[in-house]
Amino acid sequence: MLPGAQRDMVRRCVVAGKPVIVATHLLESMIDNPMPTRAEVTDVANAVYEQVDAVMLSGETATGKYPVRCVSVLDRIARRIEKEQGLGLHRGREPETIREQLARSACLLADSLSSRAIVVITMRGLLGHLVSSFRPRGAIIYAFTTTEVVRRRLWLSRSIVPFMIDVSGDPDETVVRALERLRKHDRLVSGEPVVIVANVATSHGYVNAIQVRTME
Predict the structure, then answer these.
(1) What confidence tens digit (pLDDT) does each residue in 172-208 have?
(2) CA 191/CA 19 separation, integer angstroms
(3) Which helix (H) or strand (E) holds 194?
(4) If DSSP codes are grouped into helix, strand and coil, which group holds residue 18?
(5) Is 105 in the same domain as 209?
(6) What is the CATH number of the domain that holds 129?
(7) Distance CA 211, CA 203 (A)
(8) DSSP 23
């Protein structure tokens, strides 16, 4: 696929809020050779710079001679390019529902606070995907769900690190459990703000809301 055509397809997916994966032939020369070509490195770098949700190998690891090296090369390129701000194609995405407005607001809030963590409590994974679709600039999205199927699916969305959690009848207790889980995994730093998207109790029942908590 020509780079221009690829970028247009990626842009359409990002603006529509659809997960986009760039796959096949990324490091095709490494099926037989230990080093990629310059063009292949550029293609991978461009895909990461366009802020796609995932890049995926196929024959390179299925039948190639250097599967581990291929993954290592892909990882090094992605880590280097992700230090840049990215192309920002998501800025053309306009929220159409209240939940999409909530997801975008969480990302904008995290960006304005330079927060490195957004915590999302999401049963079916939809809210986690929505937050990811608005591409927070520097925050990792820690998505907590109750099912393994949803947890595994969430791995495919950009910036998401998913966890399993037992949900309490008290939404605040669930958030506390999630934060404690992240603390045990050294994912949070004391004194830093954390943006949280979760249910809160009101006089009319439970509603989705955004919170900001500073870790102690």
Answers:
(1) 899 999 999 999 989 998 889 999 998 776 667 778 8
(2) 33
(3) strand 193-202
(4) coil
(5) yes
(6) 3.40.1380.20
(7) 18
(8) E
